[in-house]
Amino acid sequence: MKLFQSLLVAPIALGFLSPLASNSAELNLNDLKSYSEKDVGNFSSFSEIYPSDWAYQAIRDVLSSRGCSNSFSSNPISRFEAASIINLCLKDYVQITNQERRLIDEFKSELAEIAFRVDGLEGSSKDFEAGSFSSTTVASFSADFAIGAVDGNATTEKTTFDYGYEVALTTSFTGEDSLDIALVAGVGQLSEFDLNQDDGNKLVVDAISYTLPLGDKVTTFVSNGVEGSSLFNTACVYSGPSDTLSSCGAVSSAIDEDVSIGAGASYDFGNGLTASIGYEGQGDTTSGLGSKEGLDSVAGQLAYVKDSYGFSVTFAEIEASDSNDDQFTAVNAFYSPEESGFPSISVGYEWGDDGSEATTADETKSYFIGLQWDELGDGVFGVAAGTHTPVIEDGDELLMYEVYYSYPINDGMTITPLVYTKNHASGTKDETGLMVKTSFSF
Fold first, then answer.
1. How do 77-78 and 391-392 pair as beta strands?
2. Do the Cβ atoms of 48 and 110 come closer than 8 Å?
3. CATH 2.40.160.10 occupies which residues in the chain?
4. Are 260 and 291 in contact (CB under 8 A)?
5. What is the fold, at CATH topology level, of the domain defined by 134-441?
6. Residues sharing a CB contact under 8 Å with residue 428, sequence separation 6 or more, in sequence order
7. How far is CA 322 from CA 112, 290, 358, in A?
8. Tens of pLDDT along 143-166?
9. Nearest in space to 1 (alpha carbons), one of 32, 28, 29, 24
């Protein structure tokens, strides 16, 4: 008997007049098949069976001979209780005695009622189980612990402990499309690990997106909470853990303006050549998408990426206010030697025009270089340098340097120490961070 049905039959056998009963579908009694739904409605389950009745003693005999464990006191029982006990004790037996046959005939209406109600319950249960999750739904979970301190940053000069947690749900309806939902929570002060979430330790929906291929060449997506550049194929293989240098120099052109609605499309020409476009807008507010009141961003990219090298060009126009637009262009490239022992090299350079500034101070630039050894020991080792804020025309170049090593403890656990330093403007103390992140995936 199924565990769920076993739990249901216990209260009945003890005398609670519940419509939930044991699995009479397993009771191999052909007599029950002749009773329809109309037949089973005409009985009173409150008619009592007394110790002086033949059925009372016969049920006692069945309990003893069949080894049933039900307690059976000297008090009267209802007909429904009697039928429940018979159902429980004889459910797995095809051969029955004359006395048991007589009990079945006596309580045939009650037994049919049990069969009818449990069949309905089992059908409802199957319907629920079948509709609960699509067979293509996949859930993955990840958690991050981080401990560290940042000298030169008043907020995090003391050692702090951060954490982040994410649940990722993915399902497909055609075998090629993908509906993705991310639930996140996190608190912390170590901004380079970027574990802190807007709602802190409350698990909330952070992003939801739907990706749909159109034929063999075109892929499209729409989302709330996912950057419009999610289909871009920026030519960078450096995968350092810091939030600042993770853009590989494409700081603004790979649009991620923290607005809610993202959409985009990409076209695969084949042989590594792709073209992509992306859009971001304020479609979940009264400002609306593509309106004068709303702030919109649009970007495009052309990329040529092979196994050992790649190149991409990205252009973006970002509406910074009702009257000003910013424009950015980034070029990225990488090279991964096939010879072991040599690092991959990733570089990026971005220049832009700040529409809100005067012509003498409207130009910006950012750059990046990263080296990464993918098989140094059992882990990945990387060093990188780049601007941590865009360089304003004729302004100071404020750089960030980092070193990290990502070591997999096992398939589901990775430890990543990170050391970095950031230059600040004259008169401001430089910032040095030392921290370790432990990541779990399951």
1. unpaired
2. no
3. 134-441
4. no
5. Porin (2.40.160)
6. none
7. 74, 12, 17
8. 999 999 999 876 667 899 999 999
9. 24
